[in-house]
Amino acid sequence: MNERGLDHDGTIAREGDPDRVSAAFAPVVEALRFHLTETFGNARLHSAYLYGSIPRGTAIPGISDLDVLLALHDEPTDADRADAKAIEAALDDAFHQIDGAGIGLLSTRTVLSDLERHDLGFMVACLCTPLFGEDLAEYLPRYRPTALLARETNGDLALVLPHWRTRAAAAATDAERKTLNRGVGRKLVRSGFTLIMPRWGGWTSDLSEAAELFGRYYSQRAEQMHTAAATARTPSVDPAVLSMLVEDLGPWLAAEYTAVHGEKTPRP
């Protein structure tokens, strides 16, 4: 992998490796493996993946969360989602190292579909680290930092903004505000980075680097994007911060994204 996150052929290198999981998080991953095997088994579960800071080796105990993606043989059911929530709760209770566990459920058919090839397919092939099961990346293409990839990964920001406003109005506790601020910050930084990704010609999941790179192309918005990155790492409960992100940076970024890359292909 070169300094721009690319392999020798110019395609985006896969992030993460089981060997990069630090000693502090190794027990969490082992417990996750046990719970998944006991709860889902081979009958339901095709493959399991880690993503985020833990498999990248950059996780911070007590601050980082555990991000998991499960590919099921069939479409997820309400029972599957309830089982995943139970595992999340068990891990949250057992390990102070993580600031929450999140388990996403998808079917193999969805991941490998043409519609998701440059979104969920890209995520599995490049951003996910296999935990066990057959790696779906074997059935997916190699990806390059193109406008198509930018559009299909983050070209839905305009659709997300009304949802954020609704959640902000309904947030009644500091915990709810922190959760919302973290998600908003992450989405805006990732959208800001993929906006300039084809021009820069590489990939990064590091939020600080992503914000810095964005600022090279949009200096007038650089300070706001650095605030978004800081909020993603250490969420604030200051309503002025959330208002700036949702009512100023967000709408501008959504409009600029549509102008540069177009809108994401609609989902059913």
TrEMBL record:
<protein>
    <submittedName>
        <fullName>Nucleotidyltransferase domain-containing protein</fullName>
        <ecNumber>2.7.7.-</ecNumber>
    </submittedName>
</protein>
<dbReference type="InterPro" id="IPR043519">
    <property type="entry name" value="NT_sf"/>
</dbReference>
<keyword id="KW-0548">Nucleotidyltransferase</keyword>
<dbReference type="GO" id="GO:0016779">
    <property type="term" value="F:nucleotidyltransferase activity"/>
</dbReference>
<keyword id="KW-0808">Transferase</keyword>
